[in-house]
């Protein structure tokens, strides 16, 4: 399973119960559509750290990295390439 598929499944399970994976596009904006708020971002970050084994520095986080499946996937890929954004 790609990062995007794992991320999508997590978002569907935690924030969009009842929505099918085929209904959630990789560019659907979670923040603009009220799916994920600031507490949701923290929950997502904790899951990303655990699931993808990256260490993220909370003071350097930008909410735009968590708007879509695509932006989250790119953020995780960058974090893994840098040994974690710590």
Describe this structure as you would to a colleague.
The protein is mainly alpha-helical and 86 residues long. It has a single domain (3-10, 27-81), classed as Orthogonal Bundle (Non-ribosomal Peptide Synthetase Peptidyl Carrier Protein, Chain A), CATH 1.10.1200.10. 47% of the residues lie in helices and 0% in strands. The chain has three helices and no strands. The longest helix has 15 residues, at 38-52. The protein is globular. The mean pLDDT is 89.
List the helices and strands and how they pair.
Elements: H1 3-14, H2 38-52, H3 69-81
Helix pairs in contact: 1-3
Entry summary:
By secondary structure, the protein is mostly helical.
